[in-house]
From TrEMBL:
Residues 27-91 form the UDP-3-O-[3-hydroxymyristoyl] glucosamine N-acyltransferase non-repeat region domain. GO terms for biological process: lipid A biosynthetic process. GO terms for molecular function: N-acyltransferase activity. The keyword Repeat applies. GO terms for cellular component: membrane. The keyword Acyltransferase applies. This is UDP-3-O-(3-hydroxymyristoyl)glucosamine N-acyltransferase. Coiled coil: none annotated. It comes from Salibacter halophilus. Keywords: Acyltransferase, Lipid A biosynthesis, Lipid biosynthesis, Lipid metabolism, Repeat, Transferase.
Amino acid sequence: MNYSEPQELSKIASLINAEVVGDATMKVKGQNEIHVVEEGDIVFVDHPKYYDTALKSAATVVLINKKVDCPEGKALLVVDDPFSAFNKLTKHFNPFIASSSTIDENAVIGEDTVIQPNVFIGPKVKIGKNCIIHPGVSIVGHATIGDNVIIHANVVIGSEAFYYKKRESGFDKLLTGGSVVIEDDVEIGGGSTVDRGVTGPTTIGLDTKIDNLCHIGHDTIIGKHCLIAAHTGVGGCSVIEDDVTIWGRVGVKSGVTIGAKAEILACSCVSKSLEGGKTYFGLVAQEKSDAWREMVAVRRLARQK
């Protein structure tokens, strides 16, 4: 999530009552989670297990809950609760914008694009040429949609990320400040949802087709020419590479990668990253030949009793 203009670190510190370790005059261009962080960004970390990863990341500023040695060329923002401080910065630089009309007056809608009745289009939305947006679609905001895209009825694009920190008092939500990018020639089936990224984009690549009642979690990147059948759920921060086929009712755990040209058969559960170019099947997805051999072995054992 980039700020509208670079901010001096001292100003950031004052917003969240943080102690600065390093050059307080350095410029900050934005804030991001660790998996998408870039030079000039703030990243937050609140557990010693991940201190080293954050300090060695591309981030220029580390929002942290303990004063530690600061790497050369970087700075620290030290606060008691980095999670809440990160939320405060999101709210300040990317606040919720309440809509006053069904289609935001600043929405950009390309030539020959059809917007059916009862469609909601929120702030910061750009839609390309020759698209069809069917009735009941909600493009909540912060979305860029390419040319020749078809979005079927009752789809939600840009819902907030499902990201919570458990505390003694309950769950604390990490505020959503990212976006959705849908590239050219994508089709999304009725009733599906695509969450915004927490700080970066959730991306659906060129010519990918998504069936009805699918869920794409925050910060997920889906490549080109993928086929995803109905009732599939993809957890946040996953990567589905090009030419992947996922059949119905598949569950994909957050943070995994499915390699290019993989095929996931129906009702499988992807709990770990999978190599491309193979076909997988099973409650815990594995190569189908292995899964089927195990099933046959179990049946033979049952018959022996």
